[in-house]
User: Fold this.
Amino acid sequence: MGPCLDYDQVASDYARYRDAQPFVVETLRHLQALSPGGATLEVGCGAGAYICALARYGPGTRFGMDASRRMLEQAPQRARIAFVQGHATRLPFADRSLDMIFSVNVVHHIENVAAYFGESFRVLRPDGISCTATDSEAIIARREPLSRYWPATVPIELSRYHAIEKLRDAMTAAGFGGIEQWHRHARFAVSDSAPYRHRAFSCLRLIAEDEFARGLRDMEADLSAGPVPGNSELVFLWGRHP
Assistant:
């Protein structure tokens, strides 16, 4: 895998600028409705945007887990959401104790995906759902505005992200069945450079300073004339515990 970051150091910027995207929440809601119950875990929850959004819909206990203590400190404390520190390859949950596990743009931080899916299989009840939302190689190449203003992020991200087929194979080997692959996307207008200036996207912290500065300068010059186009795309790879 490629380079990694200390997420304790970037927690406040992520909490401020990384909101739950509506199309992702809607997809997760749909999957939650297909799961056998309401015990749901978000792996790599960060400051809790997605698990908090999902907790608004339906009964059940929600868990948010992250390796970064500072990220969890940024998460809002709400009823029916328990935040725990832990690692994806050693989930701190009992066998067959959860109905759904999901992650959003996190699996590229997990080097041993076989161990992760093995753990997911262990803690899910029969008919439980494991969902991984991630980027494909094609998605990385056409990200807007990241790939437009910071093309140096593309090879870095390609070195970090697992191929979709590798993830599918790891799920199959762990025992998951009925694996499906959904592609979802949304377009939006970017009118504020602040999330990019504060590098609330990890890839911007991994490129050279001159490349970052040049891209930010170009983006802000374009923003002075009006919003610039943005897009968000994800592959939702999911399957069931038989």
